[in-house]
Amino acid sequence: MLDKILFLLCLASALADERCMPDTPHGFQVRLSIKTALGDEAYAWNENEMFLFRATLAFAMRNHMTGQQFNVSNIVVCDETERVSFWFIVTSPLDTSQLIDQENVEAAIRRSRNRINSAFLLTDKTLEFVDILPTLGTPYVHPTPPWLIAFGVVMGAVGAGIIIMLVSSAVQKKLKTNKKPQDKDEDDEEETRVKTMENGVARDGVYNMSFSEDERFTAM
Amino acid sequence: MEKDARPNWDNPMQFVLACVSYAVGLGNVWRFPYLCQMHGGGGFLIPYFIMLLVEGVPLFYLELAIGQKMRLGSIGAWTAISPYLGGVGLASVVTSLYLCLYYNVINAWSFWYLFNSFQSVLPWAVCPINANRTAPIEECEVASPTQYFFYRETLNISSTIEENGGIHTGQALCFLLTWVITYLCIVRGVQSTGKVVYFTATFPYVVLFIYLIRGFTLHGAVNGVKYMFTPKMDQLANPATWINAATQIFFSLGLGFGSLIAFSSYNQYNNNFERQAITVSLINSGTSIFASIVTFAIYGFKATVNYENCLERTRILLLNTFNLAEDTITLDNVLEWIKKLNATYPEQFNEIANDTGNCSLEQELATAVEGPGLAFIVYSEAITNMPLSQLWSVLYFIMLLLLGVGSMLGNITAIITPLRDFRVVSRISSELFNGLVCLFCLLLGLGFTTTSGNYWFTMFNDYGATFSLLFIVLIEVITVSYIYGIKRFEKDIEDMLGHRPNWYWKIMWVVISPLLLIVLFVFYIVNYIMGGTPTYQAWDKEQGKSVLTEYPAFGQVFIVLLLVSSVSCVPLTALYVFCRKRKHGKPLKQQHALSTVSA
Predict the structure, then answer these.
(1) Domain at B12-584: CATH code
(2) Closest by CA position to B181, among listed B495, B434, B488
(3) Domain coordinates of chain B in residue numbers?
(4) Among partner residues A31, A82, A154, which is closest to B177 by beta-carbon distance?
(5) pLDDT at B589
(6) What is the distance between the alpha carbons of residues B341 and B326, in angstroms, rounded to a whole number?
(7) What's the rounded Cα separation, in Å, for the pair B559 and B569?
(8) A184 pLDDT band (50/70/90 cuts)?
(9) Residue B285 known to bind ligand
(10) Handedness of CA B176, B177, B182, B184 (dihedral sign)
(11) Would you give the end-to-end CA distance of chain B in angstroms?
């Protein structure tokens, strides 16, 4: 594996394009994290994969700059490392001494980013083009915010609960006042008080003023 | 025979559960674990339990006794004990009012988070993307997604207390919902409260238990629990430890608000409150410890996740800088590789030296947070890392809600009960009166849902109910022990329970608790004066963190107003009663005393 890379490097340097070097102003650095992305199913990086990369990039350039027939030879790669990172530059198909400027290359890659990623079974994070920020997907905008739905449900339930409570106490009070004329005959202080305590719910806290006054003075 | 139109609890269990529901609140979850961590882990339990025995249980017993004997809310009860000291009850009501105004905002936040949990991706797990779709929103990048969600999307916080914007509609709606639910729980007074507390008192324990199991099965949880419980005994020599233990017990039990007096005033005359006082206090402390075990398990998990993320970032950085093959560095040997690479390529390593070597599990564990920050930021961050996070999020926020609503019931009862003792008010039906009180608190509390609302919340939280409570309870215990007389009090208890209180209680009430309260009181005053200008944490959105800012002039004035308004009720009422006595002379004094005591 290592020998192959060394051989390639020598070959590449023999046909070297001196314009391709680390930190070149005309190209980009690429970083692949195959093992992180695929784990056990990771494939080995070899010259065939590199060929695929150059072909994919040529495809991207063709898509972006219509009319120009980019070839694999127009994509020059250098400075390959064990990390699986390398630099590349793009030469013009019409004149190999001309380099395609960075903006065009960047635009081309941005456009076909998805296709390039899928060719290698990688994602924006694991196939990094250093200094080219991926366009993040549009977030899904809900027509109604989901919290409002949950809120509506709970508010409705609680509101219904309150209405039921208020209506039931009003109804109980009405029943009490309907019964009262009949109870007046009994006129037993104790019993009415007992009734008050038994029906504590309906009579809660409502004070019979005249009652309490008399009782207190009588007691004293 | 005593006329008794006063409503009662259906059975003593309801009373106990109501007290438990009231005492076990958010402070048990977000204040106690912090104190435990700050003051030496397991060692903190020693001052905590000593203070519980010396201060917590006796004062709790005292308040229950007063309520059950007088069968009136705090104003009526203290007026009956000593007409000059009715102001103590009034101060309690004012303090409870302040608490009611701001406490429900926390419940509103819990609801907001609860409703937002019903999404496939929790909104506080990822940063939202900016308009260009190139990167996450800057404020979120600089801070963290959970902080961004809390400060920006929940509160929409302004940068200082002076700047104000409008009301946050989502917040306002949740706030309205909270008050509607509070009204529903108290609409018929004790009859409805008594039923609700069965649920609010018990369900939080179910959730805590579920979380305990979940917490201990999380990766790295044991680190947190070990860290917390390792006692650092040297902290016991620090006086701040003992002071904090005392104040924690004091505030955790909810003394001085008048809620306990209100609750026990609905008891049967011969209810055995002595046993109940001990039970509730022990349950409250036990819950604090239980909650802090859960909290620290979660802390440990979060710290471990952060630590491992940090290691992962360092690993990628090393791989990219030195162009090594991917599988040479794994999470286990990152630290060795750092040393190796530093030795072999020193110049290259120097360039990235700042970003490496600062992953520390200890440091992650040592970040201690308390208060709403713990509940809404730290915990929600931990939840996003759990599998099935929506379920855990829903459970957690329901628990926070129940804890908050349970305490709220006690606070609002503390306002309603004394006011209903007045003849004028008792003519109105209880549903209407309770509704009016809730409406009043709702309208005033809407101010806390504005953009600067959180700063006002902090102000109320720090100053509204801390100092005044110490003052109130100090006056209470001195009144009962010396003005009313401990002998009379003993007799009252014997009348209710059938036996006199133990010598232990008497020593606590007469000597130890007042002394302790005076120490706490003095300490608070000294701290306030020495602390200089009061400050608060303002959220800086450029830096993505909170900065310490001083309160402006009107803020400081307001703080003084908060402190003075409740404390001054005591001397002002005493003065008022004194003047009325002098004006009306003796015979009318009897009638005056009668007209406020209506049972």
Answers:
(1) 1.10.4160
(2) B434
(3) 12-584
(4) A154
(5) 47
(6) 15
(7) 16
(8) low
(9) no
(10) positive
(11) 12
Distance CA B562, CA B466 (A): 10
What is the distance of C-alpha B556 from the center of its chain? 23
Indicate left, alpha or beta for A85 from its phi (over 0: left) and psi (-120 to 50: alpha). Answer: beta
Taking an 8 Å cut-off on Cβ atoms, the answer to whether B423 and A34 are in contact is no
Neighbour tally for B323: CB within 10 Å: 15
Beta-carbon count within 10 A of B508 CB: 24
Cβ–Cβ gap B3/A133 under 8 Å: no
Q: B569 is written with which tokens?
A: 């009720």
Q: Is 0.95 surpassed by the pTM of this model?
A: no
Nearest to A33 among B118, B176, B326 (CB): B326
Among residues B85, B72, B83, which one has the least CA distance to residue B584? B83
Q: Do the beta carbons of residue B540 and residue B159 sit within 8 Å?
A: yes
* Dist CA B448 CA B451 (whole Å): 8
Cβ atoms of residues B470 and B521 within 8 Å: yes
The tokens describing B74, both together, are 């705090």
Give A81's contacts in chain B (Cβ within 8 Å).
Answer: 323
Which residue stretches of chain B have pLDDT < 50?
A: 1-4, 588-599
Axis crossing angle, helix B389-420 with helix B430-445, rounded to the nearest 10: 120
Per the annotation, does B173 bind a ligand?
no
Distances, alpha carbon A113 to alpha carbons A119, A125, A127, B43, B406, in Å: 10, 12, 10, 59, 55
And the tokens for B244?
């904090």
CB atoms within 10 A of CB B230: 11
- State the best of A2, A83, A189, A212 to mutate against chain B, taking most chain B CBs within 10 Å: A83
Which residue, among B409, B411, B422, B487, has the nearest Cα to B86 in the 3D structure?
B422
To the nearest whole Å, the CA of A21 is away from the closest chain B CA by 16
Token code pair at residue B519:
């120490």
For residue B30, the distance in angstroms to the closest alpha carbon of chain A comes to 25
Question: How confident is the model over B333-373, as pLDDT tens digits?
Answer: 888 888 888 888 888 777 777 777 678 888 888 777 788 88
Residue B166 tokens, joined: 């409008």
B227, B365 Cβ separation under 8 angstroms: yes
Residue B351 distance to chain A (closest CA, Å) = 17
Residue B448's φ and ψ, nearest 5 degrees, are -80, -5
The answer to whether the beta carbons of residues B520 and B246 sit under 8 Å apart is: yes
- Chain segment B488-531, per-residue pLDDT in tens: 999 999 999 998 988 999 999 999 999 999 998 898 888 888 88
pLDDT for A14 beyond 60: no
Q: Which of B184, B190, B269, B402 to mutate to test the interface with A (most CBs of A within 10 A)?
A: B184
| B8 in A contact zone (CB under 8 Å) | yes
Q: Report the complex ipTM.
A: 0.79
Delineate the domains of chain A, giving CATH numbers in brackets.
15-129 (3.30.70)
Structure tokens at B147: 């902080």
